[in-house]
Give the backbone structure.
Amino acid sequence: MLQRAGVRGAYMEAASMAGVAVCIGFWLRAKGYDQDERGNAERRALFVGLWPATLWLMGQSIGEIERFERTGRFARAGRTGPLKPFGRAVRARAVRAGRKGWTG
């Protein structure tokens, strides 16, 4: 829905960074209040501090969709090469048992 509205992943990631800056700004500003008002100002800073993670993940999701539309495949994080569903021990037992499709 956001992507159809023209929001790009980089925009959401930038908004996430801005949210961190706003949170720090609110927190620093709360230091200038007297003791009675400080609690409310700190709660406001914590509330704003919850936004960046959500915005960042939304940006990552939109970016993944953008990459898929550009390349036709999703990016795989981490490993390179074919995925191996089983470890060596399971593969060795399958080879000894003579199961088809397994090689030593």
The CA atoms of residues 64 and 76 lie 10 Å apart. The chain has a mean pLDDT of 77. The two ends are 48 Å apart (CA to CA). Helices lie at 9-30, 35-49, 51-71, 88-97.
